[in-house]
Amino acid sequence: MQTLYLRLAPFLITIIEALFVIAAVALLFFSRSSANRHQPVVITRLERGFARLARRKQLSVLLVGLSLIVVRAGLIPILGIPEPRWNDEFSYLLASDTFAHGKLTNPTHPMWVHFESFHIIERPTYMSMYPPAQGLFLALGQRLGRAWIGQLLVTALMCSAICWMLQAWLPPPWALLGGCLAALRLGLLSYWVNGYWSASVVALGGALLLGALPRLKKHARARDAILMAVGVALLANSRPYEGLLLSIPVAASMTVWLFRERFSRRTLTNVLLPLIMMLSAFSVATGYYYSRVTGSPFCMTYQVNRETYATAPYFLWQKPRPEPVYNHKVMRDFYRWELTQFEENRTVAGALRRTRDKLVSAWQFYLGPALSLPLLAFPWILRDRRMRFPLTALAVFIAGLTPQTWTLPHYFAPATGVLYLLLVQCMRHLWQWPPAHRPIGRALVRAVPMLACAMILLRVAAVLAHTQIEPAWPRGNLKRAALLRQLKQLPGAQLVIVSYGAHHDVDHEWVYNDADIDAAKVVWARDMGKDDNQELLQYFRDRQTWFLEADNPSPQLLPYSN
Description:
Elements: H1 2-8, H2 12-30, H3 41-55, H4 57-74, H5 76-79, H6 87-100, E1 106-107, E2 120-121, E3 125-128, H7 133-143, H8 147-167, H9 172-187, H10 200-219, H11 222-236, H12 240-260, H13 265-293, H14 301-309, H15 329-345, H16 348-366, H17 368-372, H18 378-382, H19 388-401, H20 416-431, H21 438-464, H22 478-488, E4 494-499, E5 522-526, H23 530-539, E6 544-549, E7 557-559
Parallel strand pairs: 4-5, 4-6
Antiparallel strand pairs: 1-3, 2-3, 6-7
Helix pairs in contact: 2-21, 3-9, 4-8, 4-9, 6-7, 7-8, 8-9, 8-10, 9-20, 9-21, 10-11, 10-12, 11-13, 12-19, 19-20, 20-21
């Protein structure tokens, strides 16, 4: 029984949601009496009130984001505040700490070899390898008291932006419904807000880009051109490649429209000029950032990190690089594991298996059983002229993701707005299906947000009842966080030398530090053996030094002995 539970554990939430969907659909089809064609007065009034609210577009956009903040903040006593767990999260938090202290990067530390870790660069400067957008939002949160506040704010902005985007494509009630579904599915309990990954900021950029496109074509207003430029800048400074995949169809559509408008004075002054000025300003700012961090405005931190450490390339058609000399076994193991993944993906069987895993994980995250119900109307979408551009953009985007060595759900984040546009349009078609028995389609549409809310309530109730149906809350490396709090309560500055076991999980890293290492209350360093550790101990001779075997089931701090 325990073995069966372990096998089902990653899919338990999805299985429960599927059972909810089956029960809801069965209830609808087995209770199709004539009386059921008359909607209860309460639901009718709710829908009318929802429609009245939706017609107040600005208020709707504001309420989607504000509601997310209020509800997730209210759940803090139950779900807690997440701690970083994955290598990427620690890297983004390094950028956050750097920006929060008014710096663009940090000088290379004299003892940098002891602090080497994943997804950061140590030379020519010490910084996160990722583009700066996510770090900037986390820095805002850090200045407000905690980096996670920035993650919550940008996720709320993302949900509001999706609602705003949908208003340009769909009637107001459906746009508000789409924003609410995004908040329920992506905003409350997903890792996008309950972690420190660069995902919400990417989806925010994509939503601004897609929302500005039809508005520019209809009104040719400068403010929409500015918002489009902001969207492009966010994509370029969060997930540049995936952002480019979304930007190409938008640029093509804009070019066709400008030629049809024959570059009128109105389009030149209200659209092209603001776009060029804003994009130029963002390009200069981005170039200046990279010139400070890597020494060249045309060299990204990501490039420096991959060229320094990685052997596996980003795309499957590329060839592996020669293996460099690593200073630490754990670093060598990580990048050899990456190379194994790359080589497996280049085989037919490996490519098919990885493609299956990518599709399943993306479906689980973005749709799940409940939001798959509207896809019953997808054949109508294929014949919907208004959806030709979204379908084309989505096809281009997915084709561009195919040759990547790795793909996680948030790699799809730029196209989140496209997906929810198609999803809500499917719901509009389903609302009218079938013509002779419209209540069936409408009942299915009504069931979607109800099922989404039911899953939120179930998951929160499970936490309150201490019933394990998903990983425990709060999320993150709680053992490291607990030891860090313990160390911060001790008098004086602390140094922790971390050692791992023979079967260490390369995704479970402990050695990450603040932007200003010398000023940090706690410094984490790798165990390099007693002889090599001496230079570190000499440098930090005023610190109390601890030894930590991080792979122990219950890691404990032990006084370091020479």
